[in-house]
Amino acid sequence: IIREGYEHGFINQAIIEKYAPADKNYSIYMSGPAAMIHFVNQEIKKLDLRPGQVRQEMSGSVNPYFFKNYPEEAKNKTFNMTVKTRDQIQVIPARSDESLLVAMERAGIIAPSSCRSGVCGACRSRVVNGKVFIPFPGRRAADSEYNYVNTCVTFPISDLTLQVPVHDYANMLG
Ligand code: FES
């Protein structure tokens, strides 16, 4: 059924420009499955917006192999991830198709998280060494410079060391 008065099909550059102000003074908020978010991000790149103008929330898990710029040589590998918290150092397995956050949870580490979509920053941790794949654009310049990542949307592509902040939730709740 095609209903009058609604757009149909993929959300592309033309549809966004049809409704967005010409002066580019607006924000985009996307919510949906990873494949949709990936497609719309490619279209948004053509609009020449600042990273801060785009927010996204994914449902379901992301498969990094789906992305064109994913390095072939990392596929189907399991790496060693050294996780440092305030008072513990652990070496755990980290599969290349699972986020750093999921690898920690599998190993029983209670790592901080909330949205699990790369939006809230609750899982923000520092990659001390090693390489990671970050599928979605929009990382803050300071985070890139000092190697901070959102572990929920970051994937290992080599052995690595991660410094994870410990939040004292019990005290925060009083
Ligand atoms: S849990 Fe929100 S950004 Fe990772």
Description:
The chain is an alpha/beta fold and 174 residues long. The chain folds into two domains: 48 residues, no CATH class; 99 residues, Beta-grasp domain (Ubiquitin-like (UB roll)), CATH 3.10.20. Helix content is 21%, strand content 26%. It has five helices and nine strands. The strands form three sheets. Strands 4-3-9-5-7 form a five-stranded mixed sheet. The relative contact order is 0.16.
How is the topology of this model organized?
Blueprint: H1 13-19, E1 28-33, H2 34-45, E2 54-59, E3 78-85, E4 88-95, H3 100-106, E5 124-129, E6 132-133, H4 141-146, E7 148-150, E8 155-156, E9 160-163, H5 169-172
Parallel strand pairs: 1-2, 3-9
Antiparallel strand pairs: 3-4, 5-7, 5-9, 6-8
The protein binds FE2/S2 (inorganic) cluster.
FE2/S2 (inorganic) cluster binds at residues 113-116, 118-123, 150, 152.
Quick rundown:
By secondary structure, the chain is of the alpha/beta class.
Largest sheet: 5 strands, mixed
Gyration radius, rounded:
18 Å
Number of domains: 2
Low-confidence stretches: 170-174
User: What is the name of the CATH class of the largest domain?
Assistant: Alpha Beta
Bound molecules: FE2/S2 (inorganic) cluster
Shape, principal axes of CA atoms: elongated
List keywords for this structure.
alpha/beta; Ubiquitin-like (UB roll); 5-stranded mixed sheet; two-stranded parallel ribbon; 9 strands; 26% strand; elongated; binds FE2/S2 (inorganic) cluster
